[in-house]
Amino acid sequence: MTRADKESEAAILELLMGRFPDHAVLAEESGLSEAGGDYRWFVDPLDGTSNFLQGLPYFCVSIACQHRGVTVASVVLEPLRGERFTATRSGGAFWNGRPMSISKRPGVDGAFLATGYPFRAKAALDVYLDVFRDLLLAARGVRRCGAAALDLAYTAAGVYDGFFEFRLSPWDIAAGSLLVEEAGGVLSDLDGADRWLEGGSVLAANAEVHGDILEIVSRHVSEASLRALSPR
Questions:
Q1: Does the pTM exceed 0.90?
Q2: If you write DSSP's letter for every residue of 97-133 in order, what string do you get?
Q3: Which residues, 6 or more positions from 197, have their beta carbon under 8 angstroms from its beta carbon?
């Protein structure tokens, strides 16, 4: 945790609690603040903290709102360049106010992918590297830039053809997952199910690329085998 994380989160929570005092918030630094009602916010005040500390300009703020367990609105903001990605349920996804859509690539062959290393689950590193090797051989390139929410945003925008990562936290995924869905993409956990927010492992792409990634992943790991290696 850095001073920037804490100050960013405090400013976000002050705004949210001032406008929605009866909503729950799950934030990276302060944890869960429960309240009555049907709404819950997911807040990552600085996704890419290591990049920020090193002076690497790839980090973001990520916020999502759920209603009765369904994500209904999200925003990912890249503050240095003023890049803003937004989505609402059934309302589309937008990059700086312009509609955006997922890549049209017909499969993983020649795809440009994003990923993140499982630093919270180092026991799973070997199996992750097996997956990484096979996807690297199949794709045109794989990039690891260090901010999952921003990687998901650029996947939604079609900059990346797909994204995969193990053992993320809910605040890493919640906003970006809605961006991908509303941009026409598909998300799943390692088994192809819709429990990525609970398990923290996510595959995101258009339907064709997602299917290819899932097939390669399934050669090496499932949600059950990952839990055996690295319980949450």
A1: yes
A2: TEE------SSSTT-EEEEE--TT-GGGHHHHHHHHH
A3: 170, 173, 174, 177
Q: State the amino acid at position 7 in one-letter form.
A: E
Beta-carbon count within 10 A of 188 CB: 20
The pLDDT of residue 144 is 96
Question: Quick check: 2 and 46 in contact, CB under 8 A?
Answer: yes
The pLDDT assigned to 31 comes to 82
Nearest CA among 101, 187, 109, 193 for reference residue 148: 187
Sequence-ordered alpha helix ranges (H) in the chain: 3-19, 49-54, 125-138, 148-156, 170-182, 196-199, 207-218, 223-229
Judge residue 98's burial from the number of C-beta atoms within 10 Å of its C-beta, 0-12 exposed, 13-18 middle, 19 or more buried: exposed
Q: What is the mean pLDDT of residues 158-177?
A: 97
CB-CB neighbours of 112 under 10 Å: 17
> What crossing angle do the helices spanning 148-156 and 170-182 adopt, rounded to 10°?
0
How buried is 73 (Cβ within 10 angstroms: 0-12 exposed, 13-18 middle, 19+ buried)?
middle
Helix or strand or coil: residue 191? coil
Strand (E) or helix (H) holding 75 = strand 70-78
